[in-house]
Amino acid sequence: MQSDTADNVRAALGRRGRWGWGEVAFWLVAAATLVFLPERHLILNEIAIIGLFALSLDLILGYAGIVSLGHAAFFGLGAYAAGILAKNGIGDPLLGLGVAALAAAILGFVTSFLVLRGSDLTKLMVTLGVALVLGELANQMSWLTGGADGLQGITMGPILGLFEFDIFGTVAYAYSLVVTFVLFVIARRIVVSPYGLSLRSIRDNPLRARAVGIPVNRRLVAVYTLAAAYAGVAGALLAQTTQFVSLDVLAFHRSADVMLVLVIGGVGYLYGGLIGAVFFKVLQDVLSAWTPQYWQFWIGLILVLLVLAGRERLTDRVRALRPRSRRGLATDKARPLPTTTAREV
Amino acid sequence: MLTILFDGIAYGMLLFVLACGLAVTLGLMNFVNLAHGAFAMAGGYVTAVLMNRYGVPFLLTLPLAFLVPALAGLVLERTLYKQLYTRSHLDQVLFSIGLVFMAVAAVDYAMGSQQQMIRIPTWLQGRVEILGIQVGLYRSFIIAVCGVLVVALQFILTKTRFGSRLRAAVDDPRVARGLGINVSVIFAATFAVGSGLAGLGGALGAEILGLDPTFPLKFMIYFLIVVTVGGTTSITGPFLASLLLGIADVAGKYYVPSLGAFVIYTLMIVVLVLRPQGLFARAR
Amino acid sequence: MAAALETRGLVKRFGGLVATDNVTFRLEQGARHALIGPNGAGKTTFINLLTGVLAPTSGQILLEGQDITRLRPELRVQRGLARTFQINQLFPAMTPLETLGLAVSERMGGGHDWWRVIGSKREIVDEIVEIAERFRLTDVLDERTANLAYGKQRLLEIAVAFACRPRVLLLDEPAAGVPEAERHELLATVAALPRDVSVLLIEHDMDLVFSFADRISVLVNGGLFTEGSVEEVSTDPRVRAVYLGESVDE
User: What is the DSSP string of A62-131?
Assistant: First the structure.
């Protein structure tokens, strides 16, 4: 009897860690687009990057409950770090990613202490402020960043010394997709670990989390730093694959967009950012083809409707379909959503 | 030097009129409304359209610059905002950003993306010298108007029945309801007045701040600074913060233009980290 | 032998209000000690001082003879001081299983472990099973906490604190609000807590106090009014006057 319970406990605890069929299918489809959608690789590359960026926001918003309106700070810093490195002759892409991740992580670590205190509003303002300060810095230090003209003349070396970037964006997309996948796997592992569980507990009830002996602030600093590094990598991918960085990477609308992406896909289950990125980019593509100047109106309208309709209720429904239990049928139904849209592009 | 101070005060007064509605919705009603600037923009455009298309004199457009956004605020509050008072801050942020995006694109569509010119009447143009200080007439006008508004607001909030009801409604809506105060009417009225004042500020400030469709985004951060730095326990806090911000911004742009807004953002972060409740909030 | 938990001249002032007035108090090893007092006597403030939610104005707090007065709350828990809350403080979106797994793995120092899946350590699993059985949660382990019956939530509230394997356990009105039908189960588990855990019980319910405690302290206006065995306190006419009299009125 005792061992029976123990087995059940072990199985139930391990369940979150196991990969569901739906998840496997999701990534297989993503990999298949490498072969089947060659003419869409440029936009798919952007989707992978935005997905990674939104994933990093999910780590702090969905798993740690920190509302940030300045996540572009880390994205932009990563982009500039990778761009400046490449411009100065160090064109190895992976090295660039590492440097970008490190730079963003350092900024994340330092600024994390600023967002530990205060209300949602103070956090919002401080994160926003950090991004604005960085944007202003990039604007003023035009000798380094190219200022308003953007950082031009980036030349990238081949990945691992083997794969040269091509003009169709196929190598670029493969590169971004692999990086995103690897970072996703790590993030997925983290959120089902005891550490990840402690993050969820902090988000749910910080008072009780402290009362079970969890050093709340230290955990938040760690996840904020990690998320910053992820965002830095996403920024670096953009700089490397488009070989251009402009002040736009630090702009407010980028922080707002990534939040929108995450919210469309759903907060707090990691796939939200990726699915949201597919939707957002496709939507943007369709809308801006239809009304090039005014597509933001429709994005705004979607946001408003999403909130009014009860964002949480919608995403809870999607999350319920997540492969957390052995309900294979339900998860199969959940996946084709991004798949088909990706094909229809 | 004193001219800069004077310009800074005018700018700060203007910021206060623009932001005081937000100070109430955000500070007192605890609603994060990033779309506040959209109401200010509406006021600015009302004045611009009336003057440029219909030749209405500047001063006559001001009441409408107040009324139109106030009405818009009232309608939106009744239909949409009131559903979100109890929601999470994240929902409020998303909702109001959505509104901003819509407002920006809609104005762009209707009016074009160019700067709107508002020609102020000739008797308000130019400068005079008072006690050796160069003083802009229009800025004096702004200081006078905004000064009257500030005094009136302070009076309404602290001395009238409406003010005490508002404070009661904010302190504890349930108790207030129990006392027979119609909380939702008070909230709606406050929201409308706040939007109206923003609109008036937008109209008055169009000449100084500029007016184009991105106005709500450009000045969102300034409004938020006023409210968060000023603290939310009274309107004196935001008022002082507005003056400080106005003077710092004007002086900063004059003396160290290369640093731009850098100093202001950094100061804001420092203040918020050291005093999360705001610079002028009384310690409890 | 050092007391399990001890305070010396503990004072907490909020502005002019003295919420805790020079409290010197000993919780002996293995004690079943109840702290009672009328509403507003400062029981909650006292608990918050002990657990580190509030910092005292002056005075000392010692856990097993060691000064913890300035220690952060989570470090006190790690040293063996756990509490329950008068109003449930649980993780509504998590299952009892995850909640207990969290507490156990935190205690074993695995909380910063970000690479292992939660259920992979044998000793953690075994301990979860043991706690679940002790607190009669085995059959609801895999349900969302928010969906549990109130009595079960109350049990979980104690189980989480117990999972921190405390030397000293502070129970803040454990039976508050539990419907009569589920009450017996709760009281039985509280009574069956192992003797090596010293328990301080804050309670209004006199039946529970008399059946559970071997010593009683009475807190009035922030200060210790009297202390003694159950018999001494229950027959003390002054206690009747300040406390029992009032509790009848409530």
Answer: TTT----S-THHHHHHHHHHHHHHHHTT---HHHHHHHHHHHHHHHHHHHHHHHSSS-HHHHHHHHHHHH
- Contact state of B276 with A122 under an 8 Å Cβ cutoff: yes
pLDDT confidence of residue C112: 66
Domains of chain C: 1-80+168-250 (3.40.50.300), 89-165 (no CATH)
* A120 contact B CB<8A: yes
Q: Is C250 or A98 the better-scoring residue by pLDDT?
A: A98
Rounding to the nearest 10 degrees, give the CA dihedral for residues A93, A95, A100, A106. Answer: 170
Q: Do A194 and C102 touch (CB under 8 A)?
A: yes
Q: Is the pLDDT of residue C121 over 60?
A: yes
Q: By the CB < 8 Å criterion, does B26 face chain A?
A: yes
Q: Is A251 on the interface with B (CB under 8 A)?
A: no
Contact C118 A13 (CB under 8 A): yes
Instruction: Say if the Cβ atoms of A124 and B32 lie within 8 Å.
Output: yes
Average pLDDT, chain A: 83
Give the A:B interface size as CB pairs under 8 Å.
Answer: 123
Which ipTM was obtained for this model? Answer: 0.84
* C227/B91 Cα distance (integer angstroms): 52
Task: State pLDDT tens for residues C146-160.
Answer: 888 888 899 999 999
Q: Is the pLDDT of residue A32 over 50?
A: yes
**Chain A interface, best mutation among B102, B109, B111, by max A CB count within 10 A:** B102
Average pLDDT over residues B43-63: 87
pLDDT over 90 (residue A179): yes
CA distance A112 to chain B (A): 11
Neighbouring chains of C at 3+ CB pairs under 8 Å are: A
Q: What is the distance in angstroms between the Cα of B1 and the nearest Cα belonging to chain A?
A: 26
Segment 43-72 of chain C within 8 Å of chain A by CB: 51, 72
Task: Measure CA of the first residue to CA of the last residue in chain A; give whole Å.
Answer: 55
Quick one: B75 exposed, middle or buried, by C-beta within 10 A (0-12, 13-18, 19+)? middle
Residue extents of the structural domains in chain B: 2-219
What is the helix (H) or strand (E) element at residue C19, kind and residue range? strand C17-27
In whole angstroms, give the CA distance from residue B87 to residue B72: 22
What is the structure's pLDDT at B260?
66
The fold adopted by the segment(s) A18-344 is ABC transporter involved in vitamin B12 uptake, BtuC (1.10.3470)
Out of B90, B258, B269, closest to residue A67 by CB: B90
- Residue-wise pLDDT for A108-134, tens only, equals 999 998 888 777 788 888 899 899 999
A256 lies within 8 A of chain B by CB: yes
What distance in Å separates the CA atoms of residue B50 and residue B68, rounded to the nearest whole number?
12
Round to whole Å and give the CA distance between C32 and C36.
13
Structural domain boundaries of chain A?
A: 18-344
- Asked if pLDDT for residue C247 goes beyond 60, the answer is no
Give contacts of A212 with chain C, Cβ < 8 Å.
77, 82, 102-103, 106, 160, 163-164
Residue C59 Rama label (left phi>0; alpha psi -120 to 50; beta): left
Average pLDDT, rounded, for chain B: 83
Report the gap between the CA of A60 and the closest CA in chain C (Å): 15
Mean pLDDT of the residues in chain C: 85
Tokens matching residue B170 = 């904010």
The whole-angstrom distance between A2's CA and the closest CA on chain C is 8
Predicted confidence at residue A3, as pLDDT, reads 61
Contact with chain A for residue C171, Cβ under 8 A: no
What's the pLDDT score for residue C81?
93
Question: For B228-250, what is the mean pLDDT?
Answer: 82
The 10s digit of each residue's pLDDT in A68-93 is: 989 999 999 999 999 999 988 888 89
